[in-house]
Amino acid sequence: MREQIRNLSRRESIFIGCGDRMRAGRRFRAGLLKWCLGIFMAIVLALAAILITPAGATLASIRSTSPMLSAQQGTRGANTTKGANAGKAGTRAAGPCVDKSKRYNDCGNGTVTDSVTGVIWLKQWNCLPSANFEDAKKAVAGLKNGDCMLTDGSSPGDWRLPTQMEWEATMEKALDMGCSGPTLLNDAGNGCMSAGPSSFTSVEADYYWSSTTLEGQDRAYFGDIDHGHLLNGAFTTSLRVWPVRGGQR
After folding, report:
1. pTM metric for this prediction
2. What is the pLDDT of residues 124-164, one digit of tens each?
3. Which residue range(s) make up the domain with 242?
4. I want to staple 183 with a disulfide (CB 3.0 to 4.6 A). Which of 25, 32, 92, 228 is the partner?
5. What DSSP assignment string belongs to the chain?
6. 205 and 242 both lie in a single domain
7. Domain count of the chain?
8. Tens of pLDDT along 71-98?
9. Do 112 and 70 share a structural domain?
């Protein structure tokens, strides 16, 4: 009987020991599963953070850029500059500074306005070199704010050669008054340029291109401001270049 009791106790002890090990194993597996799950979630969250952050930055960049695009579109739509450069964003050259009490008025930005014709002349009349007709047109078309002492906000395409009629109107009264070398008026418009005062300094009495061509010929008119006449010459002739803008053409 005692031997049976000892054998029973031994089997129960073995059974209890096995049960403890099984429960410990289950607890270990449960803990391992939780640990693996925690690692997995941490990886998922890290990946999500990596993917979401650039997207947010990109969206912020788009939003911050949009107002600038709108501002540029607004500038483009509000532009009122006429001529070859009309419609380009930011183009707004200073207008004429007319003073009806005198013929020519220095605008203080590198330009001089003729109050009779409305033409805006480049004050630095000798800034551009002499050139043939085609090169002269290209040179004046490229003139802009910062060139030739200009601070008028002009852009490439704003400037041009004077027309035949503009040269006629510029020299007409001076010719009637007997002015010569050059046949131009002073600022007040009541005397010759040589008598002064004048917004233009030491203007050379020479030949200056106009933009008016002769139909069917490779020739264009030019102003002879030495004698106050209009002549014409071949496109290949090298003449002086005096840019203007504005006016009525």
Report:
1. 0.64
2. 999 999 999 999 999 999 999 999 999 999 999 999 999 99
3. 104-246
4. 228
5. -HHHHHHHHHHHHHHHHHHHHHHHHHHHHHHHHHHHHHHHHHHHHHHHHHHHHHHHHHHHHHHHHHHHHHHHHHHHHH----STTTT-TT---------TTSSEEE-SSSEEEETTT-EEEESSTTSSPPB-HHHHHHHHHT--TTSTT--S---TTS-BPPPHHHHHHHHHHHHHTT--SS--B-TTSSSBGGGS--SS-S---SEEEEEEEPTTSSEEEEEETTTTEEEEEETT--BB---EEES--
6. yes
7. 2
8. 233 333 333 233 444 334 345 899 999 8
9. no
